[in-house]
Design brief:
Order of helices and strands: HHHH
Strand content: under 5%
Structural class: mainly alpha
Number of strands: 0
Shape: extended
Distance between the termini: 77 Å
């Protein structure tokens, strides 16, 4: 039996290509990052990448992932489907002009 190797001319996905990010930060912030990195035995780059990745994951999961057991999921969907009538405090809050529009 003969096997043929498939040669792909597709480009490497952008997520697999290394790139750089240039940041301008004040000296105090750089020193703070360097001290924290040193405490963990990491380089500045390792520390910044690990920190940024962890925060990015948290932000995305906060917006996308809900883990609930069946009972709590049912309660959650009932609450979403049947919101309470807004009370006077919420109504007053929603009528206020936001500070950034004043």
């Amino acid at each position: 039996m003969m096997y043929k190797a498939k040669i792909s001319s597709e480009k490497v996905p952008a997520a697999e290509v290394k790139g750089s990010i240039n940041l301008r930060i004040d000296g105090r912030t750089r020193q703070l990052i360097d001290e924290a990195a040193a405490m963990l035995g990491k380089t500045r780059t390792e520390f910044m990448i690990d920190s940024a990745r962890a925060v990015a994951i948290d932000v995305l999961l906060d917006q996308r992932l809900f883990e609930l057991d069946p009972e709590h999921f049912d309660a959650f969907t009932r609450a979403i489907d049947n919101p309470p009538v807004p009370g006077p405090r919420l109504t007053a809050l929603l009528r206020r002009v936001p500070a950034w529009e004043r």
